[in-house]
Amino acid sequence: MTHTPGQPDSRAVPAGGRPEPVPCATTPERRPGGRTARVRAQVLDAVRAELGEHGYEGLTVEGVAARAGVHRTTVYRRWEDVGGLLADVLDAAGEDDWEPTDTGSLRGDLTALNDEIQESLVARPSVPRALMAAAFRSARAAEAQQRLWEDRYARCETIVERAVGRGELPARTDARSLLIASTAPLYHQLVLLGTAPDPRLPARAATTATLAAAAGAFGLPVPEE
Amino acid sequence: MTHTPGQPDSRAVPAGGRPEPVPCATTPERRPGGRTARVRAQVLDAVRAELGEHGYEGLTVEGVAARAGVHRTTVYRRWEDVGGLLADVLDAAGEDDWEPTDTGSLRGDLTALNDEIQESLVARPSVPRALMAAAFRSARAAEAQQRLWEDRYARCETIVERAVGRGELPARTDARSLLIASTAPLYHQLVLLGTAPDPRLPARAATTATLAAAAGAFGLPVPEE
DNA sequence: ATCTTAAAGCAACAGATGTCGCACTAGTGG
DNA sequence: CCACTAGTGCGACATCTGTTGCTTTAAGAT
């Protein structure tokens, strides 16, 4: 996850994901060499550090540039604004190897997942929370956020597949809906409602979703009977 | 809901909800008279109008002041910042007489509620969405938002009470958890995940919650058998 | 009517934020 | 080794955002 400065990553991503100024076919890849990649790594590291220290509120282009040892103008030119920075961070966040833990039961898996979510959301300052805040302000960050959600929920579908394999769930189950039903109350209460975190909430939400699933709430074609 | 300019409202609210500069007991109420109230009404109307036209992104103190026909400084002094403005708007929003519609069944009531929610969230620009965005940036707006959520969910508890009265649910049912389970997927998908609105989502989320409730997912003390 | 004073208007200022042209540095290719 | 140039550094500038001291207006009381 953490980029090692000085060891340029080989990903030749167009930095901010913005449309490039039309490479004229003679320049297939602009200049993926040392300095460019190094600056990108420094800046993204700085963003994560600033986010961890001051949260989204305290995240400013000025501060990021200073911490990265880079000039303001460079950041503005490559990432445009704070939203662009976070979009890049979000894309990088999707490149880890996270996967849901296997506890042996659907309810256990969902509870473990919810525990992880709750933990990441109650931390102060919370990076995921900051990224959600950013998604409200920047279209680019919102798109990156969407990609990350999609990736995460796709990985979580293995939870449902395992449950189907164990016979806990019917084969044709809408995995995505089940996962959302299980996790949504957490985000709703912790992020939107702003209620105090309840240590039993993760388990309760997971249990509710499990019960609904057992009652056939997420059956796909519902063969009626 | 809409304030009629020129007809000062009698609510002697301390405007922004901020701690007042200690009234010296000789001045029990500062100056609730015409101009003060009129300015407040003008400004709040301007906020709602700007929000409807440009969304949260385009909401600026400068624009609000101009539209309200008031000087910038006045807005800064009474509301401090955009968050303060929205907090005041949020508090005013809680003073309506909204109540959940009665369709005759738990599932129907929850579906109707979700339909209303979805409708308010897919509108562009969406005022509720703007208020949520504001809650991320301003502590004052966040508190006001919290008060509004609390008020809304409290009113919705009548849905559960009616269902209990009809014998659809056991007497000891955790109304709040049921309501959150029913509504959270909507907010999660439309606000956080940013997925395209699905016209059947409200009904499906309501059905899921109803099934879970029937399975005893929201029983309060659970007398064990 | 007139006095008092809370609140609004006004203008000048300070700081943050973002932009632009130009110079320079350092990969890249000959 | 040298030439080329994408990308960065630098400083000057424009703008937006928020603050402060003072003046003016008008609500409320005598």
TrEMBL record, chains A, B:
Pfam families assigned to the protein according to its UniProt record, in alphabetical order: TetR_C_11, TetR_N
Organism for this UniProt entry: Streptomyces griseus subsp. griseus (strain JCM 4626 / CBS 651.72 / NBRC 13350 / KCC S-0626 / ISP 5235)
KW Kinase (keyword) present: no
Taxonomic lineage: Bacteria, Bacillati, Actinomycetota, Actinomycetes, Kitasatosporales
InterPro entries referenced in this protein's UniProt entry, alphabetically: Homeodomain-like_sf, HTH-type_TetR-like_transc_reg, HTH_TetR, Tet_transcr_reg_TetR-rel_C_sf, TetR_C
Gene Ontology molecular function terms on file: DNA-binding transcription factor activity; transcription cis-regulatory region binding
Name of the molecule in the record: TetR-family transcriptional regulator
SUPFAM superfamilies cross-referenced by the UniProt entry: Homeodomain-like, Tetracyclin repressor-like, C-terminal domain
Region feature Disordered, mapped onto this chain: 1-35
DNA-binding interval(s): 60-79
Keywords attached to this entry: DNA-binding, Transcription, Transcription regulation
Residue intervals of the HTH tetR-type domain: 37-97
Domain of life: Bacteria
